Amino acid sequence: MSEHHTCDVLVVGLGPAGSTAARFAARNGADVIAIDKRAEIGTPIQCAEGVSQSIFSQLELEPDTRWISHNVSYVKLVSPGGRVVDLNDERVAKIKYGYVLDRKVFDKDLATFAAKEGANVLLKTRFVSGERLGNGLVRAHARNFGDDVTIDAKIIIAADGVASRVGPYFGIRTFVPLKHMESCVQYEMTNLECEDAIEMYFGKEVAPGGYVWIFPKGERTANVGIGIIPSLTDKNARYYLDKFLQTPRLRNARVVEINAGGVPVSRPLKETYGDNIILAGDAARVVNPLTGGGISTAVVSGKHAGTVAAQAVAAGRHDKDALARYQRLWQDAFGHRLEMFFKAQQVLVSMSDEELDDAADALLKCNFETLSEFELLKAVAKTNIKLLGKFKTFIH
Amino acid sequence: MNVKKELCMLCQTCAAVCPTQCIEVTEMDIILSDDCNDCGICARACPMGALHE
User: Fold this and answer.
1) A190 and A322 co-located in one domain
2) B39 in reach of chain A (CB within 8 A)
């Protein structure tokens, strides 16, 4: 059996980027179909679930307590040699709370909002291939509950994650070089004492090229995960995480959920749009390469993708020039920051354990106005003459 | 390349780094096409150690 659909905008993938794109495309008058291969939005989780307060204003939503597992009030950095840098309200003048989300609830609600705006959400629908039609439209071939489905659209928004299959069918190469891929495993663990802090542990023996994180979810439960750069080691992420779990504090903790995934820690794609196509979220690699955080950038890119697509359709356009504004919008919003974070990530990956200890010592001598990555990098550059060369980019 | 399916989380990290884009991860399975040239990059990227040459 086969079905055929037509629409203005087809969104592939209903993570935060895709659901937000579908919501804003529908809100701005487009006829939207949004597909996802999963039976339930929000699972499996492929992230540590940490976000800043600003995410809800970016989404134009009032925060819902159901989305928030736990409030976090400070950040704890632990260097290879065991220096503990607490970035709390005693050392940061204008500290803001962050959240550890419950992505299963949050993501599902974002998809629900898209549907409420009028998007036709199709679950268990997997993108298989795409083609350009002679009439200026694009066609997606998909499988829905095992049946063939074709969907013709004026614009397709690829929000299908780091391993985007949509982009290549429309001329946008999306593969990620190994040195720019963070390979991640995360356990949700219980029987674990946590403070209201995001904890990050660094070091070549702990997490080559990345870090181990502990993000508290409340009620003695936390996301304990790791990201490593696989080109720097011959061991896999699970090996390092299981080794970290041998620390005395975690010996009695128990795993109640396992998740894995890849996070692109590269620059964003050079072109995140083309004729009839926009890429958003991880598919466009709009991720903070320094932390691997991508929820905030995903929703902002999704919002712009959906809005620009709907406006282009209303103007009777779906060519590359009509969609170029999308890239300008996300670049204006966070492009400069991602570029700086990419440079910072390259520096951090190159640092020895001794240099990481030195950086921690530098941070311990400083107080900060706000808790931003830039302030931390500047502080290291200004305080430690040995690291000045590596970090001088961040002083100005 | 061989997949130890009992270790695979279907997370798609392998598909993202595959230079020949020959790996498809569906909601239930991982499929390697004949274009695979056994370069081993997917095995290095896999967080779980599920892929082997």
Assistant:
1) no
2) no
- Which of B16, B19, B27 minimises the CB distance to A181? B16
What is the predicted ipTM? 0.94
Whole-prediction pTM: 0.94
Backbone angles phi, psi at A350, to 5 degrees: -85, -10
If asked whether residues A325 and A273 sit together in one domain, one would say yes
Domain count along chain B:
1
Report yes or no: B34 at the A interface, CB cutoff 8 Å.
no
Q: Check CB contact under 8 Å for A168 and B21.
A: yes
CA distance linking residue A210 with residue A287, whole number of Å: 14
Which one, of A291, A235, A282, lies nearest residue A261 by Cα? A282
Question: Which of B15, B19, B48 faces A236 most closely, judged by CB atoms?
Answer: B48
Identify the band that residue A396 occupies on the pLDDT scale cut at 50, 70 and 90: low
Largest separation between any pair of C-alpha atoms in chain A: 69
Question: Cβ separation of B18 and A262 shorter than 8 Å?
Answer: no
Q: Where are the alpha helices (DSSP H) in chain B?
A: 13-17, 41-45
pLDDT digits (tens, 9 = 90+) for A239-264: 999 999 999 999 999 999 999 999 99
- Reported in sequence order, the residue ranges of A109-235 that DSSP labels E, i.e. its strands, are 120-122, 125-132, 138-144, 147-158, 181-190, 197-201, 211-218, 221-228
Average pLDDT, chain B: 93
- Note the pLDDT tens digit of each residue in A197-233: 999 999 999 999 999 999 999 999 999 999 999 999 9
* pLDDT (tens digit per residue) in A266-296: 999 999 999 999 999 999 999 999 999 999 9
Range A188-193 average pLDDT = 96
Q: List all residues 6 or more positions away from A124 whose beta carbon is below 8 Å from its beta carbon.
A: A37, A38, A39, A144, A145, B27
Is position A396 within any domain? Answer: no
Q: Tell me the residues of chain A between 246 and 275 that have a Cβ less than 8 Å away from chain B.
A: 258-262, 264
- Select from A168, A181, A231 the Cβ nearest to the Cβ of B13: A181
Nearest-CA residue of chain B relative to A145? B27
Regarding whether A114 and A254 lie in a shared domain, the answer is no
CA A383 – CA A361 distance, rounded (Å) = 9
- Cross-chain residue pair B26–A163, CB shorter than 8 Å: no
Best residue in A166, A181, A186 for a mutation probing chain B (most B CBs within 10 Å): A181
Q: Quick one: pLDDT at residue A395?
A: 66
Measured between beta carbons, the chain B residues lying within 8 angstroms of A175 are 16-19, 21
Q: Which CATH number fits the domain that encloses residue A30?
A: 3.50.50.60
